[in-house]
Amino acid sequence: MGLSNFFRRFSKREDGDVLEQAEEESHMSSYDRAVDQEDYEAHKVDAYTDWRLRGSEAERGESDFDSL
């Protein structure tokens, strides 16, 4: 399998995921969409905060093994 086939398969899977999400959202109320968006935004903040904390530990030379 060449790279073009790999990316084509990957793209088709993503398209399927997008269609599935659109189908789910079409049955959601506006309140459900707002809650879903709020959860998504909170997840982004959590991921960014986690990334920043890991970066500050690396700057100080800390690691998970320092506490052992």
Commentary on this structure:
- By secondary structure, the protein is mainly alpha-helical.
- The radius of gyration is 20 Å and the shape is flat.
- The model has no long low-confidence stretch (mean pLDDT 77).
- The chain has one domain.
- The longest helix has 31 residues.
- Helices cover 81% and strands 0% of the residues.
- The protein has two helices and no strands.
- The termini are far apart.
- The relative contact order is 0.05.
List the defining traits of the structure above.
2 helices; mainly alpha; 68 residues
Summarize the structure.
The chain is mainly alpha-helical and about 70 residues long. Helix content is about 80%, strand content about 0%.
